[in-house]
Amino acid sequence: MLYFAELAGKPVVSSDGGSIGKLYDFYFLGSDQPLLTKICVVSSVGYLYIPITSVKSINGTIILAPDHESVEPTEQELSIRTHLLDQQIIDIQGNKVVRVNDVVIQQKPYYVIAGVDVGVLGIARWLNVEQYLNKALAMIGKTVTSNFLSWDDVQPVELSRGKVMLKREETKLTRLAPEDLADHLERLSLKNLTKILDLLPTEYEADVIQNLNVGRQRDLLRNIKPEKAANILSRIDPDEAADILLTLSERRRALILPFLSPEVKTPIDYLISLSATDIGDLATNDYATADPEELAGKVKARLKGESATLSQLSYVYVVNKKKELVGVFNLQELLAQDADIPVYKFMIPNVIVISLTTPKEIAMKKMIKYKLYALPIINEKREILGLVTIDDLLERMEGRLI
Amino acid sequence: MNQKLYAILRYIKYKWKRLLVVALIIGPGLITAFADNDAAGVSAYSVSAATFGYRILIITIPMTILLALTQEIGARIGIVADKGLADLIREQYGVRISIAMFVLLFIVNFTVVVLDLAGVKSALALFGLPTILLPIIVGLLFLFIVRVQYKTTERFFLITIGFYLVYMVSAILSKPDWGMAVRSMILPEGPFSPKFIYTAIAVVGTTITAWGQFFINSTVKDKHLTVEHLKYNRWEVYTGAFLTDLFSFFMMVAVIATLFVHGVQITGAAEASIAIKPFAGNLAGLLFGMGLFVAGLFGCIIVPLSTSYAFSEFFGYPGSLNEDFHKSRLFYTILLIQLALGTIIVLFPAVTLFSITVIGNFFNGAVLPIIFFFLYRFVNNEKIMGKHRNTRLQNWLLVGGGVFITAASLLSIAGQVLGW
Asked: What is the CATH number of domain A2-79?
């Protein structure tokens, strides 16, 4: 195992004894395996990009074969410094976004990036204080372990070098639940968000997009090319697509719609034409909520009291401290739980929702498709604005059903 | 029926919100600008106004331009790159520079926190309240920030801004020569001694702060504003700069019309609010003291927050006012350390604020040119900014401003050390 922090700046010499310069960077393949392909050396004549095949040894001093020559990196090659080090990555195992403090390189059987260090030791290594930090901590009876993440468990966020196809990345990311990945992607810049979406297999991408919050979905469709927007929309459910399109301005919508193929466009056009029938006036406040940490027993006891004041009770919506809707469960699911099970363990995180711009017809279709009696209306921040029940909806739509 | 009405009302509110994009944008620009008028700022304005009178008002216009310019660039980077200043420094310049910058920023911000806490302490004394209230107030502030969402914190700030109106009332109560005040903004009368020039430049310099540049970037990023919002955001930033300096103007006018006219010398803002009373009445003095209290509180929250934001961006820890304590533990711990240490220092009567001011100005002066350098590099980087790079005029202003601020902080340090 070699650490990039310890390699950077080391002298590079030729095996016939001549000094060449100092190690600056490595290039690696942005494909299946992150194989190192070139080393970048700062020399008196500028940057040299030397193929890794000319590197004889990397321990201590870096020794190159005497006949080495400089070859410019191709679009397929990424640089450790530009694309990995100090950048954000998604830690798939730990399910969070972190910064890369150091890059770990494996020598055998060939030079390859083994993973990244995201811990304090990674930072200490750059300052050459790793041993002191270890000693100091040992004195107070503590140890720091290197916070190493294997390459299989990370997804770099910064991938801006031409059109790089990272085949294996997609399978890596799909280990995360689409709603979790959507959560991380919401925090990234729009540019990186679109890039990562590009990596994903079609089906999964559609799932992730549907799980992004309304604001981010809108930003996405506003800022990417209309062709691309149409491409994304055609991959998700027409109901959802129409719903997202309705949050855009009419002008933007008119730009995107022509790019949809007729078989996708027709149903979406129809759904949008229904949007005049707003749903807001059907909303009621008769719904029950629970906290993700609340215990099933407590919820049961509480609902027993509350149910008297509710006109109907089919689902309990799980709302976190930020008032965001994070899950749902029905009464049957609740009754099946032991008293000491917290809500987040049995709730269904993927809630079917509608927004205020959703036409009644789409709401109805969703209820039928997912076999639900009620749907929550949420705003851009996933806060519940109200509930639409199937009874109210049927009453209002009477005579308009085919 | 009631329910339907409620739903309709909510619906109207929703539509209304969508119409008012401005309402979504508002926050970062105004808050950062106003936080520049923290307790340290109020002191600097009061002392210089009492010493030089109406002619010091000449600083108002250049101060506003400089503040508007630098804040707009910060906000623009935040919107276009969707990254904070510290994020960009780390990504473009690596770990070592990030650590150095964080250490510098921590020291600068910490001195400002101490000055603001001292401001709150002296405001308490003005109202005859015991000093022991200081740790209690700080504790409550901390709990408030931890418990509530960014949205609520932002609203709290926006309401607090309203309290700055007390300076306007103080100014009116002190019956100044308004014609003279307005004239002095362009054509000041009186001798231009070296001391006057040095003080004027130093006061303009204190408007632009290291933390202000980090804070506007981070909060704009946290709001996830997008490129369509650029136009609105620009106006919010400009309005913030204008209003902030309008209140600075009133603050100085209140002092000039009373203390300068009667030849009373002061050394700080708390003294000013006592000294004003005989000339403008008890109410004016009281309001001036209240202003100091609010300014101190404002600084006590915003400045340590900007340190925490920078930390989590530099080192990639989750950090945002939208996360709960457990998730952003380091973010809040850094906030707490600054407030707790600062409170302890302020409670020791032996520590003189003068030495802290000198240290603070010294590091601020050292760190600002570096921040201007980073701003220049980032805002002109095509990969980061695309077509939203600086225009040539903006670049000239930015470089000019950087040189000016650097000179200002050098002068200010020299002045304090040599006792000009």
From this structure: 2.30.30.240
